[in-house]
Predict the 3D structure of the following.
Amino acid sequence: MTPGEIRGKTLSELRRARKDMMSAEWLAGVKDLPEAERTAAAMALLDVCLAIRRLENTGVAAIRRQLADNEKELERGIGRLKRAAGQQRRIRTYLKAATALVATVGKVVKPL
């Protein structure tokens, strides 16, 4: 896969995660969690949004090498998040998958 394709696929999955994490179903499920977990869910959503912004604002040429070096890890993260999306009611599982993918994106694009 080309670096541009990797970036596009990662962005697509992060955008879907953001949409899922802002849905009424998600918010209703998060509402029932203990306060510390609600805070973690809010931080995870913020991290997803920031990862999207970083990838959008960084040209492929600038991160070509990092995308190639982390391709397998990004693919695994995307796969985990897709599987977790099918079980969206399992909020903790979804949060772990989203957080892991965001961490990998952090290896590719350094924080602003």
In short: The helical segments are 3-21, 24-31, 35-57, 60-69, 71-85, 91-108.
